[in-house]
Amino acid sequence: MRALIAAAIGLAAALALVLTITAIGAPAGKTSPKPLLTTVPKHV
Question: What InterPro entries does the record tag this protein with (predicted)?
Fold first, then answer.
């Protein structure tokens, strides 16, 4: 029974955190126009 209560408290805390982050929204800013390199260029 204690495990069920602990799981419910953890789930409620996680849900509260998600709702808080959703309410705050994404930080303002802009993305860089330069592409990111995902691989190391080969020296041929």
Answer: SPW_0924-like
Report phi then psi at 43, rounded to 5: -95, 110
Residue ranges covered by each domain of the chain: 1-25
- pLDDT tens sequence across 1-44: 999 999 999 999 999 999 998 888 877 777 777 777 777 767 66
- Verdict on whether the full-model pTM lies above 0.85: no
> CA distances (Å), 23 to each of 16, 17, 18, in order?
10, 10, 9
| Single-letter amino acid, residue 40 | V
Residue 23: helix, strand or coil by DSSP? helix
